[in-house]
Amino acid sequence: MTLATKLRDHKAVHAGAGAVDLAVEKLREVPVHVTRLQGTAKENATKLQQNAKEFQDKVDTKDLPGAAVAYMTHLGTRVAEVIDELAERGKTVVNRVEVEVPEISEPKPTPRAKAATAKKTAQTDAKKAGN
After folding, report:
1. Can you give the pTM of this predicted structure?
2. Of 12, 24, 50, 93, most Cβ neighbours within 10 A?
3. Three-state DSSP string of 91-130
């Protein structure tokens, strides 16, 4: 089994390939999103300031540690799900590339090449014997 074959079978490689594929897909969408968001940025900033003032009055600091633990638990679960999704996406990318680029192996010598190699070896041996 070659190193390339071993690497193709690892979840980390699949996750990395899936992440790159997803990043490329999302980067292609950026210009459209930037144009759309430029028009609504000021409107959203005003709404955000109003919402922040409302939430400051409603938040009880005693609830923050429990909320933080719940959030981190959810975050850990979600990270595992995302890695699995990226690995699945990466499998398709790796398999697609594997089909497009066949594995490189040593070319098998033809009968003519074998004969030429044998002739060169015989000539070299003859020269060594003559010296």
Report:
1. 0.47
2. 93
3. HHHHHHHHHHCCCCCCCCCCHHHHHHHHHHHHHHHHHHHH
